[in-house]
Specification:
Helix content is 61%, strand content 7%. The protein is α/β, with parallel strands linked by helices and 547 residues long. The protein folds into 2 domains: 4-426, no CATH class; 451-546, no CATH class. Helix 15 (337-358) packs across helix 16. The chain is globular, with a radius of gyration of 25 Å.
């Protein structure tokens, strides 16, 4: 039974979580314009416009369904962004970045609720902070239109799935409807949300197994299973309908989601990707590619929390095994929290295990598997909370000392993220020696986010050359990277060119040593922790030399 002090501290941690969410939402609104346009954003934006045209033309315009390969993706984020852009006073991509950042806040809220459900208010607050302080999630929320929204939707789907399992075979309609909506939205972004099916089967199995160990007869178990299926069926109907709205191609043929899933598992893309200092083909990755990137991309505090969570789980399992036949009785309705933890472990590590054994096509580090990070954040929070409790049990002063040390670690991680802003996603932990140690070993600014800063610095450089005089010439600028990542931000006196011989300047990101392929005097370098992410080269003297 919880004490009055426990309840009071629970309210404090809930308030801290709400304050953190509000602060992040304000930060998103203040900084969304700092983020550049990534390589995928232009085509995703077009896809959203075409999906909107499908509806505004009353289903006559079906150009979205043969546009590149994007019809295999749900268009939830892009469709909503295209609709908002009809009325937004902001620029087209600025609107998308603001929307993406706010969707990231929604994902943080989902992790908070999941952590709170499984471990109480303190775990909820810690889970929120673990995800917030993971730069791979926070940084990509602004300009990753597929993976970041999918990670947020999957966090809420897992939360409502656990809510469902906590009350089985009873299932209030409101929880069932929310689960269906969350699952439908996740499917409306990426077909990978079909993973929820095996998670649910595992949860139901554990629930029934616990009931059986608690003494329920086979006949009653069968009745419970039938009740569960009947009560969950409307949730899947809701999910299918929501998915159909966000991803019309997915419902044009019942097998289309399966076709899309199989296509992504063996995507025939010939990109090179960097891992541990070696360039490898995206379709022929080493088995440790994803585990390796997770190990160096997750903050140290999250990794420590995951290790502690594993230790706590091993201790719990050892005690249960020691109890003999009563091992699974705790999974009955009296304590379903452990089922939720088991599903969170499954959601965090099953996709990683799948990657190791199946070796599907992937690239750009953990980007395509960003959805495993939220459940990992929850598990890390559970581990840290377990150590906090254990130390407090030894001596309350040790608990306070741990809390202070944990707060200090979080502040240090916030400082690192501030130094990286707005290129948070190039973060690497101390296992690689940070960003500097990752240079040449792992992918850094693979999406060209830093080209925005380089472009603005070039605009200022040209303006400074003229001093107080008006700029009387239009300078031609080439781009090594995605054209729109720089050209979208050109002022009137800068013009994009594909012809290198006529370029006055070249803006280049350093992915694949792109900048080294072009001659010119380097005048601007965008750096993070001493590592160049993009550069600007002045080529005017080359043009003058050839005249």
């Amino acid at each position: 039974m919880s004490t009055r002090s426990d309840r009071r501290w629970g309210l404090v941690f809930d308030d801290l979580a709400r304050i953190a969410l509000l602060a992040v939402a304000v930060m998103v609104c203040l900084t969304y314009q700092d983020y550049g346009i990534t390589n995928d954003e232009e085509v995703q934006n077009v896809y959203g416009i075409k999906l909107l045209a499908f509806y505004t033309s009353f289903f006559q315009d079906q150009s979205a369904f043969d546009y590149l390969d994007l019809y295999r993706y749900g268009g939830l984020f892009d469709l909503v962004a295209a609709f908002i852009n009809q009325i937004s006073p902001l620029g087209e991509y600025e609107t998308r970045h603001l929307l993406g950042g706010l969707v990231g806040v929604v994902g943080l809220a989902g992790v908070w609720r999941l952590g709170r459900l499984l471990g109480g208010p303190r775990v909820g607050m810690l889970a929120l902070m673990m995800l917030l302080l993971t730069p791979a999630f926070y940084g990509q929320s602004f300009n990753n239109p597929k993976d970041a929204p999918f990670a947020a939707a999957m966090a809420w789907t897992l939360y409502y799935l656990c809510r469902c399992l906590l009350v089985l075979p009873d299932l209030p309609r409101r929880i069932m409807v929310k689960f269906g909506l969350a699952l439908g939205l996740a499917l409306g972004i990426r077909v990978g949300a079909l993973l929820v099916g095996p998670y649910m089967v595992a949860g139901i199995f554990l629930s029934l197994l616990g009931e059986w160990r608690a003494g329920l007869r086979w006949k009653e178990l069968g009745r419970h299973l039938g009740t569960i299926v009947l009560k969950l069926l409307p949730a899947f109907v809701i999910a299918y309908a929501v998915m159909g709205i966000c991803w019309p191609w997915g419902v044009m043929n019942p097998l289309n989601p399966i076709k899309a899933l199989l296509a992504f598992s063996a995507y025939p893309i010939n990109l090179d990707t960097l891992v541990a200092g070696e360039w490898v083909k995206a379709s022929h990755l080493p088995r440790d590619y994803l585990p390796d990137y997770l190990l160096v991309n997750l903050p140290e505090v999250v990794l420590v929390g995951l290790v502690l969570s594993g230790i706590a789980g091993a201790i719990w399992l050892g005690r249960r095994l020691h109890s003999g036949p009563r091992l699974l009785v705790g999974l009955a309705r009296s304590d379903r929290r452990h089922i939720g933890m088991a599903l969170t472990i499954l959601a965090a590590f099953f996709p990683v295990a799948f990657f190791v054994f199946e070796q599907p096509t992937a690239y750009n580090g953990i980007r395509h598997f960003l959805f495993v990070v939220p459940p990992m954040a929850v598990l890390a929070a559970l581990g840290l909370d377990w150590l906090w409790d254990w130390l407090s049990g030894l001596d309350f002063r040790l608990g306070k000392l741990f809390a202070g040390a944990l707060a200090g670690v979080m502040v240090a991680q916030i400082w690192v993220m501030c130094q990286l802003h707005p290129d948070e996603y190039v973060y690497y932990n101390l296992l690689t020696g940070g960003v500097k140690g990752a240079e040449g070993a792992y992918e850094l600014d693979y999406w060209g986010n830093s080209l925005l800063e380089a472009t603005k610095d070039l605009a200022d450089y040209i303006a400074m050359e003229y001093g107080d005089k008006p700029i009387s010439k239009v300078y031609k600028v080439a781009v090594c990277g995605h054209r729109l990542s720089a050209a979208y931000f050109f002022p009137d006196y800068m013009e994009f060119t594909k012809r290198l011989d006529e370029a006055d300047f070249i803006v280049a990101f350093t992915q694949g040593n792109c900048q080294r392929h072009f001659e010119g005097r380097q005048i601007i370098t965008v750096e993070r922790f001493g590592v160049a992410l993009s550069v600007v080269k002045d080529r005017r003297y080359l043009k003058n030399r050839t005249k």
